[in-house]
Amino acid sequence: MPFKTEPQHTHGAVPHTAIVLVNLGTPDAPTRSAVRRYLKEFLSDPRVVEIPPRLWSLILHLFILPFRSGKSAAKYRKIWTREGSPLKVHTEKQAALLQTLLQERGHDGVRVVMAMRYGAPALPEVLDQLKLDGVDRIALLPAYPQYSGTTTGSIWDAVFGHYRQIRNVPELRLVKHYHDHDGYLDALRDSVLAYWDAHGRGDKLVMSFHGVPKRTLLLGDPYHCECHKTARLLARRLGLAPDDYVVTFQSRFGRAEWLQPYTAPTVAELARAGTRRVDVICPGFIGDCLETLEEIGMEVKHEFEAAGGQDFHYIPCLNESPAWIAGLAEIAEQHLIGWPTMMSPAGREAERRDAQLGREQALRQGAAA
């Protein structure tokens, strides 16, 4: 495999450090064609669907994409905003706020960017741009608190696959998970308490995590255990008894058995058993998206009310809450230990010279054109 051409090396250049906040991804628009492109990339990942490739390719192209694309596009239209896809908007804002807070804490030599595993901005393209920008240390921070081979493992596949084509590979650090990190758990606790202060407290707190096939648990994936640990630690912080909350899994796909109990049937059963109000939180998502706003906030709400439930409350994701950005900074700082993250006076001067050279080069190119 030929290597990509390296940018021109500058002796004595100040190496830079970057944090890449990586989320799942989103279609470019809530249209059938855009959703089809996104789903094709997402569902073609062998980490996501562990079915023999030839068989799955037939199923995907003959049955899944032709029928699911339109239905998914209709769901995206329900939650799309003027700024665009909520998932992308929240990830962009989180990256910007994390950059600002790290600078306030003295890490002015660290750059924070966001990337998507599927869709745009594509992770390989972001890594290419960081190389062009002189970044030689990269910490990869997934937007998944709980590790799964289907999510975080897929990010590592994309990163290592990309760097197989790179001659001069930067120094890398990989944040595997933060499901039991105090900064993450404290932010979750604060978000629940703030919601209860404003809206009262429900009869049952449902902690709904994204589902994965049950076979992944049986084959050694730690995701199920990490979800339950997050729920247990959050319940302890909230002072909840075991009967006060339930852990469920959502977003089931296909006919295979997934992690149980499933969210929608559980919520409906609670309603039939006489539970008047449920509060639902999705701790596995750090930003609101299709799975929280449409699936939980609309579909699961309908299931609860159709079964006789009277009061359904969805507690928003962490999004840009100050407590969460502070927690995210703590997680990042722990994985930056040992790297110089404060820009020296010489580094600042080099940055100024580089910027000036860039401006002069742009002027020359403009004049030549």
From TrEMBL:
<feature type="binding site">
    <location>
        <position position="210"/>
    </location>
    <ligand>
        <name>Fe(2+)</name>
    </ligand>
</feature>
<comment type="function">
    <text>Catalyzes the ferrous insertion into protoporphyrin IX.</text>
</comment>
<keyword id="KW-0627">Porphyrin biosynthesis</keyword>
<keyword id="KW-0456">Lyase</keyword>
<dbReference type="InterPro" id="IPR019772">
    <property type="entry name" value="Ferrochelatase_AS"/>
</dbReference>
<dbReference type="GO" id="GO:0046872">
    <property type="term" value="F:metal ion binding"/>
</dbReference>
<feature type="binding site">
    <location>
        <position position="291"/>
    </location>
    <ligand>
        <name>Fe(2+)</name>
    </ligand>
</feature>
<dbReference type="InterPro" id="IPR001015">
    <property type="entry name" value="Ferrochelatase"/>
</dbReference>
<comment type="pathway">
    <text>Porphyrin-containing compound metabolism; protoheme biosynthesis; protoheme from protoporphyrin-IX: step 1/1.</text>
</comment>
<keyword id="KW-0963">Cytoplasm</keyword>
<dbReference type="GO" id="GO:0004325">
    <property type="term" value="F:ferrochelatase activity"/>
</dbReference>
<dbReference type="GO" id="GO:0005737">
    <property type="term" value="C:cytoplasm"/>
</dbReference>
<keyword id="KW-0408">Iron</keyword>
<feature type="compositionally biased region" description="Basic and acidic residues">
    <location>
        <begin position="348"/>
        <end position="357"/>
    </location>
</feature>
<protein>
    <recommendedName>
        <fullName>Ferrochelatase</fullName>
        <ecNumber>4.98.1.1</ecNumber>
    </recommendedName>
</protein>
<dbReference type="Pfam" id="PF00762">
    <property type="entry name" value="Ferrochelatase"/>
</dbReference>
<keyword id="KW-0479">Metal-binding</keyword>
<dbReference type="InterPro" id="IPR033644">
    <property type="entry name" value="Ferrochelatase_C"/>
</dbReference>
<comment type="similarity">
    <text>Belongs to the ferrochelatase family.</text>
</comment>
<feature type="region of interest" description="Disordered">
    <location>
        <begin position="348"/>
        <end position="369"/>
    </location>
</feature>
<dbReference type="GO" id="GO:0006783">
    <property type="term" value="P:heme biosynthetic process"/>
</dbReference>
<keyword id="KW-0350">Heme biosynthesis</keyword>
<dbReference type="InterPro" id="IPR033659">
    <property type="entry name" value="Ferrochelatase_N"/>
</dbReference>
